[in-house]
Amino acid sequence: MTPPVFPPLFSGLDAKGTSPFVLACAEASNVCDAGLVTYDLAYDRLRAAIVFAPEVPLRDAACMLPLCGVGFQNALGALAPPEVGVHLGWGGEIYLNGGLCGRLSIAASSRDPDALPDWLVIGITLDLWPPSDDTGLTPDATALYAEGCGEVDAVTLLEAWVRHTLVEINTWADDGPARLHRNWLGLAQGLDTDMTISGHRGTYIGIDENLGLLLKTEGETRLFPLTDLLTEPA
User: Fold this and answer.
1) Whole-angstrom Cα distance, residue 144 to residue 95?
2) 58 φ, ψ (degrees, to nearest 5)
3) Nearest to residue 49, comparing CAs of 118, 108, 96?
4) Mean pLDDT across the chain, nearest whole number?
5) Is the pTM of this model over 0.85?
6) Percent of the chain having pLDDT more than 70?
7) Residue 173 backbone phi and psi in degrees, to 5
8) What's the topology of domain 11-190?
9) Considering all CA atoms of the chain, what is the largest pairwise distance in Å, rounded to the nearest integer?
10) So what's the pLDDT on residue 218?
């Protein structure tokens, strides 16, 4: 396999079968340069992660999670047939034509929303092939090559994800979150449906200016910030 080629200021590191998300967090903790892209490309799954060095507090920097989702949609949209629809769940889920196909994850050096984190990592996992030929066993899940994307090469998709994410980062840095807010809402999966978050049942009615989820429950609207999605790499 030819190693992926990334834009200037980005560098690649092959995880060689281990978790790129865990590797990226470890490298970031050891003070690697921002722009490191770790990856593991198997025949049935694409996994990768990007290391960021935020210059804003975590509550604002956490928008890199939905931003990377928009970057992925733009990347696949440029490579896949036009009938392939990409939608994004607030929790990082990636849907192709309505079926769950992958997920984005977020970790940072701090969980304090007001702190400036030393590093932040966004990981992506995407299923390329379904685990079974009998897709009827998992009707709510799918895979990239099961949705008419057989011509999309995993290396090319990874390269495109990084490029399109960089474009979104530059736009966000120049113009603020308004465009990201608008673009992400256009891709939102599950909007205006009932859901349960952290034990609270309600209707997903939208996102606030920092892309936190707004859940309408009986008598009130609750806000769940993106920092609630921070996870420990494992």
Assistant:
1) 10
2) -55, -35
3) 108
4) 94
5) yes
6) 97
7) -65, -35
8) BirA Bifunctional Protein; domain 2 (3.30.930)
9) 56
10) 87
User: Would you state the structure tokens that stand for residue 87, as one six-digit string?
Assistant: 């939608």
Separation of alpha carbons 118 and 125, rounded Å: 24
Task: Say which residues have a Cβ less than 8 Å from residue 201's Cβ, sequence separation at least 6.
Answer: 194, 195, 217
> Residue 195 carries which side chain, given as an amino acid letter?
M
Tell me the Cα Rg of the chain.
17
E strand intervals along the chain: 11-14, 36-41, 45-52, 86-88, 93-96, 99-108, 120-127, 194-197, 200-207, 213-217, 220-224
69: which 2 tokens? 């989702």
In 3D space, the residue among 92, 116, 103, 108 whose CA is nearest the CA of residue 28 turns out to be 108
Q: Residue ranges of the domains in the chain?
A: 11-190
Angle, vertex CA 88, rays to CA 158 and CA 162, nearest 5 = 20
| Cα angle, residue 56 at apex, residues 55 and 59 outer, rounded to 5° | 145
